[in-house]
Amino acid sequence: MRPLKYISILAVVVIIFSACRKDPQPLPSEITKVEPEPTSAIKGFYLINEGNMNMNKASLDYMDLVNGIYTRNLYNQVNPEVTKGLGDVANDIGRYGSKLYVVVNVSNKVEVLNIKTGKKIGQINIINCRYITFNNGKAYVSAYLGKVGDPKSPNGAVAEIDTTTLTINRSIEVGRQPEEMAVVGHKLYVANSGGYSPPDYEHTVSVIDLRSFKEIKRIEVAINLHRIKADRYGDLYVTSRGDYYTIASKLFVIDTQTDQIKKVFNIAASNLAIDDDYAYIYATAWNYIAGKNEITYHMINTKDETLMDRKFINDGTEKNIKIPYGIAINPASKDVYVTDAKDYVTPGKLHCYSAEGRLKWSVTTGDIPAHVAFTN
After folding, report:
1. Would you place residue 26 in the very low, low, confident or very high pLDDT band (cuts 50, 70, 90)?
2. Distance between CA atoms of 227 and 273, rounded to whole angstroms?
3. How big is the CA angle at 238 (ends 235 and 244), to the nearest 5 degrees?
4. 352: which of 193, 229, 262, 360 fits an S-S bond (Cβ 3.0–4.6 Å)?
């Protein structure tokens, strides 16, 4: 046994060392000025940067449109007590009422923030959560379940969250690796991917009755589904990523009155945003055989379901976007926001295009800028 005196001296040394050691410091916020829009009906928007997996580099930025101020790393400055920051891979963001919800995939959580300040007010733990949507006082979160990348993962699920108490009310099993969701009427549509077990992909959209919270059917669509967006006519636009080899990415239209496919667009579609009668689409379609990405931009008139000659970027600056990764439409000004993930490991870019398709401004973001949530 060591002498008591030795133990006492050792304790003092440990205390001094601990006092001198610095706790992890949050990344400093950075401000970028762009042309202000003092009369903007939309005051601003949050943008989440996914960050690189297993590096806790997810981050939250805010664009103040009225004053023309873009703030990087807002979350870390507002929540310095959260030593690991926002977490690992921020996969989606959504606003509902006075709250902002951030789905942090690999950290297995949904962070709930004050919409005005970005201050954390709650957290819901969900394994391998992916996307979020809202309806009638509830939030719905899709989740892969199981470990990231595990081909033996079980079927996925959708969790129903009470947005007042921030607790999970119910959950329902769907297909493997469910992705985006959309609500039309009393039905929730879920795009199943099966992305952890190629070539055995899923190929269905789960249909959930929100009143009973039961899966009532699955709609056969195509393999490896991802995005699903509703237009104002009750139709759903669903993307299939294909198999990255011989089965190409396509865009499908589902009539929610019949729950049947009504149209197929033979264009690649990685992501899309729908505003009024227009769908804005980009594709970064990787093909292993060709060994390269093919990047395209399209617009569809959702009223008559036709592919348009018009592009939402028409000033030639799309050639400066290396990897388009996110898209959002300002519902008031009709400006189009396109993010560029660049090389996936360094800060990306956010580009603002006018409704006429001309570049208005660009700012530097965090790593892998992805999703936008507007504020009033």
Report:
1. low
2. 10
3. 165
4. 360
Name the residue among 335, 331, 334, 321 with its Cα closest to residue 365.
321
pTM: 0.91
- 149 vs 136: which has the higher pLDDT: 136
Cβ-based neighbours of 211, under 8 Å, separated by 6 or more: 186
Question: What count of other Cβ atoms lies within 10 Å of the Cβ of residue 345?
Answer: 11
196 and 176 in contact (C-beta within 8 Å)? yes
HEC-encoded secondary structure of the chain: CCCHHHHHHHHHHHHHHHHHCCCCCCCCCEEEECCCCCCCCCCEEEEEECCCCCCCCCEEEEEECCCCEEEECHHHHHCCCCCCCCCCCEEEEEEECCEEEEEECCCCEEEEEECCCCCEEEEEECCCEEEEEEECCEEEEEECCCCCCCCCCCCCEEEEEECCCCEEEEEEECCCCEEEEEEECCEEEEEECCCCCCCCCCCEEEEEECCCCEEEEEEECCCCEEEEEECCCCEEEEEECCCCCCCCCEEEEEECCCCEEEEEECCCCCEEEEECCEEEEEEEEEECCCCEEEEEEEEEECCCCEECCCCCCCCCHHHHCCCEEEEEECCCCCCEEEEECCCCCCEEEEEEECCCCCEEEEEEEEECEEEEEEEC
Q: CA-CA distance, 108 to 115, in Å (whole number)?
A: 21
Residues 269 and 279 sit within 8 Å (Cβ to Cβ): no
Question: Using 50, 70 and 90 to split pLDDT, how confident is the model at 27?
Answer: low
